[in-house]
Specification:
single chain, 226 residues, Rossmann fold, Arc Repressor Mutant, subunit A, elongated
């Protein structure tokens, strides 16, 4: 079955989109190129973080697919620099990081999209189309409570008190990263019952009841381990 006229037009429009790929692993760059080259114009591939900004200024891409965990200049830092120099540039971070704090940090840095590497082959073309349509893209495989925490702001409930102890802030920071009670207990060298005790006290003080709301509060208040 042949393409419709609208599908052909979209295909032609896509081919005019200039894309730059950034990843420190050559095999990843090769895979991304094979995946996207039939649909978009790949203007540059960058393997070293020190070359990201200069290459973007030289090639002036419409979209950059950027590894969030580059050695040297991280993807988050690079996004901030790129957005200052090229405000119209669309940046999509491609990463293995699924924690709410990482997703939130990406969008605070100015990213337009956030794609998990494990679903990149299915989502990258859609992500590029979405950000070029002036919309934000977030991987469908991001856990619902993380998506909820990032997409919706935290609002102060009735009975709120932000007077958390140092230990409660530590527990909350780890919760915001998606850590389990067991992980937190091991990290802080305390029992699981003690973690649950702190979590109960935190929810009581904040006047919230769900993990999603706890994460929203942590992100809003900058209570993280990063």
């Amino acid at each position: 079955m042949g393409q419709t006229s609208s599908e052909k037009k979209m295909s032609l429009d896509r081919q005019t989109v200039r894309v730059m790929l950034v990843d420190d692993h050559p095999l990843v760059l090769e895979s991304l190129t094979k995946l996207l080259d039939p649909h978009f114009t790949i203007v540059a591939t960058v393997q070293h973080s020190s070359d990201i900004v200069s290459s973007a200024l030289e090639h002036r891409p419409d979209v950059i697919l950027l590894d969030a965990c580059m050695p040297g200049l991280s993807g988050f830092e690079a996004t901030r620099e790129l957005k200052k120099l090229l405000p119209k540039l669309k940046v999509i971070l491609v990463t293995m990081l699924t924690e709410a704090i990482s997703v939130s940090e990406a969008f605070r840095a100015g990213a337009n999209g956030y794609v998990l590497k494990q679903s990149a082959s299915d989502e990258l073309r859609m992500a590029i189309d979405t950000v070029l349509a002036q919309k934000r893209f977030l991987s469908n495989t991001i856990e619902p409570q993380v998506r909820e925490a990032v997409e919706h702001e935290w609002f102060r409930p009735e009975g709120y008190s932000g007077d958390l102890t140092g230990r409660q802030r530590e527990v909350l920071a780890l919760l915001s990263e998606g850590r389990t009670t067991r992980n937190i207990a091991q990290e802080l060298n305390i029992s699981r019952k003690t973690v649950e005790f702190h979590k109960a006290n935190i929810t009581h003080k904040l006047g919230v009841h769900t993990t999603s709301d706890l994460i929203k509060f942590a992100l809003a208040q900058g209570i993280t381990t990063l």
